[in-house]
Design a protein that fits this description.
Helix content is about 35%, strand content about 15%. It is of the alpha/beta class and about 350 residues long.
Length: about 350
């Protein structure tokens, strides 16, 4: 490809989905070093791409400046000035379709993600469910670039270099004298969240031998994590104390992350940290498991008691009577998995 190749990549939300693009973008620029990327998404997600060469981030303000059809046309006019040669729509929703439609009058070659909606519907229905592993979101993203002429091999990611922690972070964490374990107990929907009383048992046990860091965001989560921190030794909540860029920096120094099917799982996986995930109403078969993690790191509910899981792709709905499905995951199982991962990597 010519050295003036410039791909405009559009993925406006959500946090976890944007995080899943990061390993793909890293591989793309490593394997096609003359390609320039402009990634279009929400401003607060910029830190995800700060350390990737040949990548520029462009903030889309879809709640104000770029809201609605007129706002998207304004965004189009701004992006048009960048003279992209290719457009990769990794979102394929109404907003990105409208934005894409404006570009049809340019000479930019366009490719769009195939979300596999029909097969995902078959995976989540209760009658005649087709229960099988679907293509991962990472591979679906890579397929978009392949359509544009840029094949991306995701099988052998290049190692990320760890930089020294900044003083602001070490003032919170202190010096590392034991394993550092991250725990992110929250998710966007209740069906994806391990019951907090069980998670507190996990935290209490792991804190006996390891330094724990709790991750979350929003007023309620910050308050809940602060209470856990207050009553637990070797447990520090970083929620509300660090910005996203600083959290990502801290994550690179963890020995393990325990998270739900959520954005924090993808943050740690994209930073090449061993990531253990707990799954409730959703399932890794939908293709949203963290990048490059062994399937054994996904801890699932009891399939005999709850055979209709996954009830939905994103966890926004739950099957009747499945509200307590995650209680079939014993705290002892979670603790053993974390200890096993830490022992393997010691």
């Amino acid at each position: 490809m010519q050295s003036n190749t410039h791909i405009l990549v559009v993925r406006l939300s959500a946090m976890g989905d944007v995080a899943m693009t990061v390993p793909v973008i890293r591989a793309l620029v490593a394997q096609h070093p003359t390609v320039k990327i402009t990634f279009v998404s929400k401003a607060f997600l910029k830190p995800l791409f700060d350390d990737i060469p040949n990548v520029t981030f462009y903030a889309a303000d879809v709640t104000e400046k770029h809201k609605g059809v007129l706002g998207l046309h304004k965004l189009y006019k701004e992006l048009k000035e960048l003279n992209s040669t290719h457009i990769a729509d990794l979102h394929n929703v109404l907003r990105s379709k409208i934005l894409r439609s404006y570009f049809k009058f340019t000479h930019s070659k366009t490719a769009v993600i195939d979300k596999g909606r029909a097969e995902k519907k078959a995976l989540t229905r209760t009658k005649d469910k087709i229960f099988k592993q679907l293509k991962t979101s990472h591979q679906r993203y890579a397929d978009v670039f392949a359509k544009l002429g840029f094949s991306v091999d995701l099988s052998n990611p290049k190692s990320i270099e760890k930089s020294q922690l900044q003083k602001k972070i070490t003032d919170i964490t202190g010096t590392k004298t034991s394993h550092w374990v991250g725990i992110a107990p929250f998710a966007a929907f209740d069906s994806k969240m391990y019951p907090l009383d069980l998670m507190e048992k996990v935290i209490e046990e792991l804190s006996k031998n390891h330094q724990l860091f709790l991750f979350g965001g929003g007023k309620n989560e910050i308050e809940v994590l602060a209470k856990i921190e207050e009553k637990t030794e070797n447990c520090i909540s970083v929620a509300g104390k660090l910005n996203l860029k600083e959290e990502l920096h801290l994550i690179t120094h963890l020995d393990c992350m325990l998270a739900m099917d959520s954005g924090n799982a993808h943050f740690s996986a994209m930073q090449q940290i061993d990531t253990i995930t707990l799954w409730g109403g959703t399932h890794p078969f939908a293709g949203f498991a963290p990048y490059n993690q062994p399937k054994e790191n996904c801890i699932l509910t009891d399939p005999e008691k709850y055979p209709n899981i996954p009830c939905s792709i994103y966890g926004n709905t739950i099957c009747d009577g499945y509200e307590d499905a995650m209680r079939t995951i014993a705290p002892e199982t979670v603790i053993a998995k974390v200890e096993g991962v830490l022992k393997t990597n010691s």
